[in-house]
Amino acid sequence: MSTSRSVSPSRRGVLAAGGAVGIGALLAACGGGKGSADANGSAQGGPWSFTDDRKQKVSLKGTPQRIVAFTGTAAALHDFGINDQIVGVFGPTKLKNGKPDPQAGDLDVDKVTIIGNAYNQFNVEKFAGLRPDLLVTNMYEPGALWFVPDDSKDKITKLARSVAITSSRVPLVKIIERYAELAGSLGADLKAKKVTDAKSRFEKAAEKLRKAARSNPVKVLACSGSPDLFYASNPGINADLMYYKSLGVDLIVPDHLDKGGYFESLSWENADKYKADVLLLDNRTATLQPKDLAAKPSWAKLPAVKAGQITPWSSEPRFSYAGSAPLIETLAKAIESARKVG
After folding, report:
1. Residue 117 per-residue DSSP state
2. What does the buried/exposed string (b/e) look like for 265-287 if buried means 16 or more CB atoms within 10 Å of the residue's CB?
3. Alpha carbon separation from 192 to 55, 77, 81, 199, 201 (Å, rounded)
4. Alpha carbons 145 and 149: distance in angstroms, whole number
5. How far is 81 from 195, CA to CA, in rounded Å?
6. Are the C-beta atoms of 271 and 342 separated by less than 8 Å?
7. How far apart are CA 284 and CA 61, in angstroms?
8. Is the predicted pLDDT of residue 39 greater than 80, yes or no?
9. 3-class SS at 247?
10. Of 59, 96, 286, 342, which one's alpha carbon is 20 to 30 angstroms from that of 53?
């Protein structure tokens, strides 16, 4: 996955803590920490356990009924049928105009408490006030909880047990399967028509992309734009790009990766280093979009830009069949209609 946040040169980043006042009292109110389900009085059914991708087994006396999750994670669980159990989210949730951020997917953002709406936000007091049974998030780097501030991580993980799902270095479909497994453990019906229809659409989209890549082998560069740098992303580490490459998409592999391995950062003067026919452009709200980039001469000179062969890239995909199928369909259509220009 690419990133264009100048404050975060690697996926791990350093996140600021928020709302530390009164945490001790809140910890006590939550039954001494660990977010045990019976302490919160909200668990249902018999014992529940799940082993996450840190190889940590989380065990509670009942199925978690009060879940707080990273927004994209919550959206993925929602796609699999986990709804009312999600009481809070953190991460990009609402745009400035009040509409849902793309990462929120089909989640009803007005029915959940937003713990923090941006990369450097996490209101610990608000989190504690939700009496969470479980915190769920992605894990791009081993042991790092995505969007959970490092300097308040210990306080947060005392308030609720946490589950982390690996979100890089393995193909997209494997991560989706892990989220399905987690959702199933939380009570989702994975045989529900909504879920099976989404899986069918995903599989059809994947086959469409495979055929497009075979019939029109254009070169694709996954990239991200910031005011000062142009990032060329690595298909060897980003889960979605790994999957697209396995389907035959000719994704360019940068040859001088930054620390962490997610991308190569290039000055705008060197934005033309890689000859691409199609640009798969990071469409997160924190990154520059074509209208923002239009004033950069080096951007305007890129062959793919001149040809109008730019397609949006959700570089933090929603790890569900419903969330990923449209992304694959869009890429397949872009490749089908592209011509060689690089």
Report:
1. S
2. bbebeebbbbebbbbbbbbbebb
3. 29, 14, 8, 11, 14
4. 8
5. 8
6. no
7. 38
8. no
9. coil
10. 286
User: Per-residue pLDDT tens for 159-173?
Assistant: 999 999 999 999 999
- Report the mean per-residue pLDDT for the chain: 88
Gap between the Cα atoms of 231 and 4, Å rounded: 7
Annotate 113-126 with DSSP letters as a single string. Answer: EEEESSTT--BHHH
What are 232's strand-pairing partners? Answer: 223, 264
Contacts (Cβ under 8 Å, ≥6 apart) of 114 = 88, 89, 90, 93, 94
| Total count of residues recorded for the chain | 342
pLDDT digits (tens, 9 = 90+) for 244-294: 999 999 999 999 999 889 999 999 999 999 999 999 999 988 889 999 999
How many CB atoms are closer than 10 A to CB 166?
A: 18
HSE-up (13 A, CA, CB side) for residue 19: 16
For residue 3, pLDDT beyond 70 = no
Tokens of 82: 């986990």
